[in-house]
Specification:
Radius of gyration: 16 Å
Shape: globular
Number of strands: 4
Largest sheet: 4 strands, parallel
Strand order of the largest sheet: 3-2-1-4
Order of helices and strands: HEHEHEHHHEH
Helix content: 40-55%
Strand content: 5-15%
Structural class: alpha/beta
């Protein structure tokens, strides 16, 4: 019962101030279903990473209405150069601009940088990416709070 109260309080907080959640695997059926549900609930705004046409086609093929979801394609993202520059700075010489640009073509790194740059508030991955491939970008780019590993 306590957990339900806590969950309801969280939903009320989110309804008052909806957050943008990045889904790194925009064409995955489970992600599209979750996005369709979130769009009807209106307390988290989905941001789907992937080619716009591919994401829309996957949603239609699976019968999910994702009208209103934002779809962001790393290949055509207007802020890519600023994102590359910021990622080079965050990696502190461990990756060149070209290496960062290549990494940002992948949804896991691109989505993480959307959060780091304040374009989105949170990220969900792991539908097709392994746990390690989902967590690694966060540890490299967002880091943990000081004193935590």
């Amino acid at each position: 019962m306590y957990h339900m109260e806590m969950f309801n309080k969280l939903i009320e907080t989110l309804k008052a101030n909806p957050k943008r959640i990045v889904f790194t695997e925009g064409t995955d059926a489970r992600i599209l279903e979750a996005s369709a549900r979130l769009l009807t609930a209106s307390w988290l705004k989905p941001v789907l990473v992937g080619n716009v046409e591919d994401v829309k086609k996957a949603a239609a093929d699976h019968g999910f209405n994702i009208d209103g979801a934002e779809i962001v394609d790393p290949e055509t993202y207007e802020g890519m150069e600023a994102m590359v520059e910021k990622m080079v700075e965050l990696r502190k010489g461990k990756m060149t601009a070209d290496e960062c640009r290549a990494a940002l073509k992948k949804g896991n790194y691109f989505g993480t940088m959307l959060v780091k740059m304040g374009v989105a508030d949170c990220l969900l991955g792991g539908a097709t990416y392994s746990t390690a491939d989902t967590v690694r970008p966060a540890l490299q780019l967002i880091k943990t709070k000081p004193g935590n590993k």
